[in-house]
Design goal:
It contains eleven helices and twelve strands. By secondary structure, it is α+β, with helices and mostly antiparallel strands. It folds into three domains: 49 residues, Uridine Diphospho-n-acetylenolpyruvylglucosamine Reductase, domain 2 (2-Layer Sandwich), CATH 3.30.43.10; 108 residues, Uridine Diphospho-n-acetylenolpyruvylglucosamine Reductase, domain 3 (2-Layer Sandwich), CATH 3.30.465; 93 residues, Enolase-like, domain 1 (2-Layer Sandwich), CATH 3.30.390.
Length: 263
């Protein structure tokens, strides 16, 4: 690692001021991506702003009929929260399947969402549930937030502060994970709401997480695993790598979607 300036603000306002005063600074949440990339010199920021000292960015609460989760809340806290298990049990199960205990106790929901790794689990849940992302400047809908591989609608000097999830009629996430990393080779989140069904896929898209609209239409008409039997995801926009071909991943999307619907 190269030398860098380190700051640990105690309030969101202090973090905002530090970010504005240090162009090119990187925000440190759980550090599960930033620190390894810095060790490999793939990222060489001159300044690090550690958000771990900001108490207002942590916590889980029922809010306005939904579920509000602070961006600095760890995966472990989401997985074990009574509020999450009571409102969206599938989200707690998703969090409990991320990485290993060390990752779950250091990694944060906000860090994962803001990083938008194409194989991360949370983006699928955020998109399927139609969550709203609150930042230090504004609110952003899930459909507008994710904008490609490791790309989001977050602007420079903008900090993700809270994720607001509406409570669905049902929600489930099924993942076929890469055994070494436990990232999703393919993961499918299915949310059933009063307005219809939303299906989001991670680990497969060449541009990252995406909604599978054909499956949404089929499931909105008939919410059963069998409704997906005649549907196949087009593999032309599916990624291919050493872990699996595009055709293999496209097949897995259908398998994981049916498992999610079956619960």
């Amino acid at each position: 690692m190269q030398a860098f300036d380190y700051r640990r603000p105690g309030t969101l306002n202090e973090a905002d001021l530090a970010l504005k005063a240090s162009p090119g600074a990187k925000l440190l949440a759980g550090g599960q991506t930033l620190l390894p990339t810095m060790k490999l010199r793939l990222a060489t920021p001159d300044s690090i702003i550690d958000l771990s000292g900001i108490a207002s960015l942590k916590g889980i609460a029922r809010k306005d009929g939904g579920l509000a989760i602070g961006a600095m809340t760890t995966h472990a806290a989401v997985a074990t929260s009574g509020d999450v298990k009571g409102a969206i049990p599938g989200l707690a199960k998703l969090a409990g399947g991320i990485g290993d205990p060390q990752v779950r106790h250091r990694g944060t929901i906000g860090g994962s969402i803001a990083n938008n790794d194409p194989a991360a689990d949370y983006p699928a849940a955020v998109l399927a549930l139609g969550a709203t992302l609150q930042t230090s400047k504004r609110s952003i809908s899930a459909d507008d937030f994710f904008q490609g591989l490791f790309a989001t609608a977050l602007e420079e000097n903008e900090i993700l502060t809270e994720i607001n999830f509406p409570v669905p009629q049902s929600f489930a996430y099924a993942k076929f994970d890469q055994p070494a990393s436990r990232f999703a080779l393919v993961g499918v989140a299915v949310a059933r709401t009063a307005g219809g069904v939303r299906v989001a896929v991670t680990g497969a898209g060449q541009s990252g997480v995406f909604r599978w609209t054909e499956a949404e239409k089929a499931l909105s008409a008939n919410f059963s695993a069998s409704a997906l039997d005649s549907i196949k995801l087009d593999a032309s926009n599916v990624m291919s790598d050493v872990h699996g071909s595009a055709d293999y991943r496209a097949h897995l999307v259908g398998v994981m979607a049916r498992r999610a619907v079956a619960g």
